[in-house]
Amino acid sequence: MESGVVAVNNNINNYESKATSTITIKGILSLLMESIDDENCDGGGSKKRVISLGMGDPTLTTLFHTPNVVEEAVADALQSRKFHGYAPTAGLLQARIAIAEYLSRDLPYQLSRDDVFITCGCTQAIDVSVAMLARPGANILLPRPGFPIYELCAAFRGVEVRHYDLLPEKGWEVDLDAVEALADQNTVALAIINPGNPCGNVYSYHHLEKIAETAKRVGTIVISDEVYGHLAFGSKPFVPMGVFGSTVPVLTLGSLSKRWIVPGWRLGWFVTNDPSGTFREPKVVERIKKYFDLLGGPATFLQAAVPQIIANTEEIFFEKTIDNLRHTADICCKEIEDIPCIFCPYKPEGSMAMMVKLNLSLLEDISDDIDFCFKLAKEESVIILPGTAVGLKDWLRITFAADPSALGEGMRRIKSFYQRHARKL
Question: Which positions bear N6-(pyridoxal phosphate)lysine (predicted)?
Fold first, then answer.
């Protein structure tokens, strides 16, 4: 196991130095699972159950459930026997129309089916966006902390990554001065994630407006990752970046995964928010269409279910999800107050994860966030993600989309871990 820890350390150190990563969040979490001590027991001699607060998969809990109407929509599409063949490469027409109408509810203009392309989850939408913009000498501005898939996609496409910081003291807002300093004539996009992963932030209308104005000023477009769209439970409502599509062209990326609690279905979208028509230039449209000819989308019957899913899901389901996330975020923040070595600078207001600062000066034999997470997994059978994996050394990402009992128990074990490793005064 030691060699595995060394490997992940080497890969993550490479991530920091080169701004690209050869390790994924799932890869790190797998190594953490492997490090769990099979003989680790609780006080009563029973083997401790594993508590994972590292993976953003709400289906792993008993708290979040996919609504019946969603499953019925898929069953109806499958049993109709009309959707066993290939879908058009851009996606099934009725699915594209339904997604365009769904997203247009929150916009000051109407999207058309031609603005929407169906992808295998938001991950494929990320890869498409980077691939579409790649050219010799290109660079892309990415948030730190952020989602490492962007770095991986950029590395494969030969696109230089330039990181701008998110500011924890300002609710993880974008450092707009840094964006202006980093951008040049080869900058192809500014990427944002809202609601934020891994920070749990939600951007205000005013801040999004300033992001749009900054992007316009430096002459680039915005990639807006909204996979956690509408999962906002704080004082700020979710505002899609596409609202500012008239100021700057926006590529909106999203999926059914989080809001409908179906991450394994891998049904996402890549959408051009561009009422001014930049993306409607024939060469741009053809480039996008030809690239989608190379891709395989989600299963046709899943696409066929989209109109029914969007039309028939009741608002009470969404409200319950929001209430549950608010409740589990509150539990997490309250428990953190009793763990001196970690500090939450900003209470999460959206998504399913949060970032907390690790105070190594209070720990006796912990060298960094990676060491903390591997020893925690081995000693307490609790999995959390080292912050270095998302670009922020000596921070931790905690996923709070968990059963309240497991979340509380996990945080108590982290407290016990701290007490065991606390520096002696």
Answer: 258
What CATH number was assigned to the domain covering residues 25-65+316-421? 3.90.1150.10
What is d(CA 194, CA 161) in angstroms, rounded to the nearest whole number? 19
Non-local CB neighbours of 68 within 8 Å, separated by 6+ positions: none
| Residue extent(s) of CATH 3.40.640.10 domains in the chain | 68-312
**How high is the pLDDT of residue 11?**
46
User: Which token pair is 415?
Assistant: 């407290």
- pLDDT mean over 69-75: 98
Beta bridge partners of 348: none
**Tens of pLDDT along 9-47?**
554 444 343 434 456 888 899 999 998 877 676 666 667
- Pairwise CA distance, residues 161 & 164, whole Å: 10
Query: For position 23, what pLDDT does the model report?
Result: 67
1 has a pLDDT exceeding 50: no
223-246 mean pLDDT: 98
CB count, 10 Å around CB of 216?
15
Q: Count of CB atoms within 10 A of residue 167's CB?
A: 16
**Total residue length of the chain:** 425
Residue 5: pLDDT over 60: no
Q: What percent of the chain has pLDDT over 90?
A: 86
Q: Give dist(CA 131, CA 127) in Å, integer.
A: 6
What is the fold, at CATH topology level, of the domain defined by 68-312? Answer: Aspartate Aminotransferase; domain 2 (3.40.640)
Q: How far apart are CA 236 and CA 249, in angstroms?
A: 24
The mean pLDDT value for 61-82 works out to 96
In this prediction, residues 410-419 reach a mean pLDDT of 98
What pLDDT, in 10s, does the model give residues 283-312?
788 889 899 999 989 999 999 999 999 999
Contacts of 75 (CB under 8 A, 6+ apart): none
Give me the amino acid identity at 401.
A
